[in-house]
Amino acid sequence: MFDFFENFNSDQLIPAGYNAIQFIRQWARASAAPWKFAAFEGLPPKQLELAKRIVLEIESREARSVVEIPTFKIDEYIRIISRKIQEISMRDLHGDEARGKILLDELRLSS
Amino acid sequence: MVPEPIVLYSVNTWLAFIIAERYYRGEHWVWCTPHFDPSSVPSLNYAVPPSSSPIEIYRGLRKDILSGDRHSAKIEANKTGILRGVKTKRSAGIIDGAGAAEIDSIVRASDIRDFRPMCYVIPFCLVQDRVRPAPIDQRAHPLSAEFVIEKLPRDCFDAIGLEGI
Question: CA B103, CA B85: separation in Å to the nearest integer?
């Protein structure tokens, strides 16, 4: 699922994935307006296309609009999208979990 | 004429808060509304579904943390939001590649307790020049009062926990 993520770098995938998540969890459900897609304001064309592709992939798999998909299924998709984004983010940003633990401990102590 | 709000409310996670403090010059990106709890406001004045309200976002995060839900979709979505912030701040020159790697490392090492909710209470008079209406197609309702503040300085809001609500 979402195998096409591998064809994008984190610069494109993270903003697009974030907007797609916001759309399926909130914007599409809460809005009283009958728009098919949020405008995904501010997204450049490639990210916009990717965000829409993510939503369409979900709708295609479920054979229904995102607003008709039960919340627990939407949550599953959010988890899958987020984890894939985190994998690609780590690949591109060169994150290091061991280093992260040290930094996190410092932040916890400072607050 | 719609009166100006007195305060704005926004619910965020501790991890998002502390990253903004440490890496983004203490400037916080927030989505906010004048209504903490829509059930206390006549529905004609506030057309936002309860699930989108600050109080329900707070309750949802808190519930997942207290139940130890390691697969919380809310927390996963928050991680993606933090990573999206990394990209935005990197593009704006606020952080460099090393800073981006550090934040990515922190997100990767985080655990549930780092996503405990915090409520920001923002006096409107301090931010009226910084707020912009949320895009209409991203609001919970086209008529609802929802705002975005892209650079909210720490001295313009109080950040509180609300145990027990």
Answer: 10
Q: In this complex, do A31 and B140 lie within 8 Å of one another by their Cβ atoms?
A: yes
- Whether the CB-CB separation of B29 and B89 falls below 8 Å is answered with no
Do B55 and B62 touch, CB atoms closer than 8 A? no
> CB count, 10 Å around CB of B24?
20
CB count within 10 Å of CB A85 equals 25
Interface test with A, best of B48, B75, B80 (most A CBs within 10 A): B80
Distance in angstroms (rounded) separating the CA atoms of residues A102 and A46: 36
Mean pLDDT by 10 residues, chain A (111 residues): 90 94 81 60 88 94 92 95 93 92 96 79
Q: How far apart are CA A19 and CA A40, in angstroms?
A: 7
Instruction: Collapse the DSSP code of B87 into the 3-class scheme (helix H, G, I; strand E, B; otherwise coil) and give the result.
Output: helix
Cβ distance A31 to B51 less than 8 Å, yes or no, reads no
Residue of A nearest to B138 (CA): A27
Side chain identity at residue A85, one-letter code: I
Contact A31 B107 (CB under 8 A): no
Tokens of B159: 């950040």
CB within 8 Å of chain A, chain B residues 75-94: 76-77, 79-81, 83-84, 86-88
Counting every residue, how long is chain B? 165
State the Cα–Cα distance between residues A108 and B14, nearest whole angstrom. Answer: 10
Which amino acid does the sequence have at B45?
N
What six digits make up the tokens of B45? 């004045």
Complex ipTM over 0.95: no
Q: Touching check for B1 and chain A: CB below 8 Å? A: no
In three-state secondary structure terms, B29 is: strand
